[in-house]
Design a protein that fits this description.
The complex is a heterodimer of chains A (74) and B (373).
Chain A: H1 2-17, H2 19-38, H3 43-73
Helix pairs in contact in A: 1-3, 2-3
Chain B: H1 5-24, H2 26-30, E1 49-54, E2 59-63, H3 64-85, H4 93-113, H5 115-138, E3 148-151, H6 153-159, H7 179-182, H8 186-193, E4 196-200, E5 218-219, H9 220-225, E6 235-241, H10 250-278, H11 287-329, H12 336-364
Antiparallel strand pairs in B: 1-2, 3-6, 4-5, 4-6
Helix pairs in contact in B: 3-5, 4-5, 4-12, 5-12, 10-11, 10-12, 11-12
The chains are: A mainly alpha (74), B alpha+beta (373).
Amino acid sequence: MEGDIMNIGAGLAIGLGAIGPGIGIGMLASKAMEALGRNPEAGDQIQQNMILAIAFTEAIAIYALVVAIIIKFV
Amino acid sequence: MLSSPRSLAILIIVAAVFVVSILGGALGNALGFGFLASPLLAIQIPAELVTDIGTESFHFSLMNTMVTTWIAMLLLVIIAAKIRGGLSEVPGRFQALFEVLIEFFLKLCESVAGKEKARRFFPLVFTIFLFIVAANWMGILPGFGTIGRIADPVEIAHHHGDHAYVDPGAGDYHGKSKAHGDDHGDDHDSHLGSVKLHVFNNSGGLAILTPGSLSDELTFDDYDAAHGDVGKGKTVGHLVPFLRSANADINVTLAMAIVAMVMVHYWGLSILGAFGHLGKFINFREGPIGFFVGILEIISEIAKVISFTFRLFGNIFAGEVLLMAMGFLLPLIGIIPFMGLELFVGIIQAFIFSMLTLVFASMASISHGGEHH
């Protein structure tokens, strides 16, 4: 019985936890594309800052994944 | 695509491999076919023990991630010695590759931190990048996570907390009652009873998960019910890999995060002086709000260590679990696209770790007034 609820918990943890970062990364990338279209000369700067910001957002999804893995395997 | 007979032949071969791997894998096991199916490796978050070294006074447990860390370090030292020993004015390809990398990172350091500080920050940033790339890319080589030793049921029970477990397959079982049911309450009994044991075809030394043994998987309860008899020449247990991706261990990533943040604070102290650096965190100059901002900054420093650790650990460990799960579901070809993903993730996470160290170092070495333009 607890095994079932723990499996549901692991699934919910990563499923719900990936919603926010997914939307966030999408917004980041879209604004970066926009900025790149407006000012192609700053392309390198925009790209590096975009990658940095995506790393921060992705980390939140990774925290959710680690919680899901801990629930499932520990 | 179906135009020439050669492309048609390639298509047919790929489709055949696909069908064979579906039928042979875990999905085909339910239909009765699973000839390639091996059980999913017993995944756990802490690193697994390879061997114990030492006597009663000095005891060292060698973990499989420590072995990989040493191999990665050895690789980097060998590459460095080779390049340094063979430096020439007209670079060969190997030296040229590292010249490209070093130039890229030096330019990155200069653009983020300014010319004077770039040279100070560069060694740590580049070393972190090289070590993480080496460790991540080594972790997807064949042999990592697949070749190892067999952990017998006593060790598995010990790991799950049941210290009085007696193996019914070992020689000294005769007549003893099942020890694991007596001393502990119902929780331990049901928890250990449902842990699965895998069946191997050999008894010692190097072992791999045997293809086709998915249907032979049994739980501790089944194992006790069969009185430890699983057939001649077969051993029961879990596979403990000798090699595991180095950054799939929280200790490794935590150590690197601590080193990075300690160096960031050291640079902040040495460039800004004690009062300048600590004045950012204990800030009475701008009134009560400044004080609370300082406290938030302290919390944010701790959060940086934690986020460094879990970002790298989560990416690499999840990638490892993903490769194992895809290898379990589609044995021959399932992991091919995910290898590409792991290559990409490996280098991106290395770049992110080193770039974030650089950005934090540069932010820590700019005085408080310099941030307001």
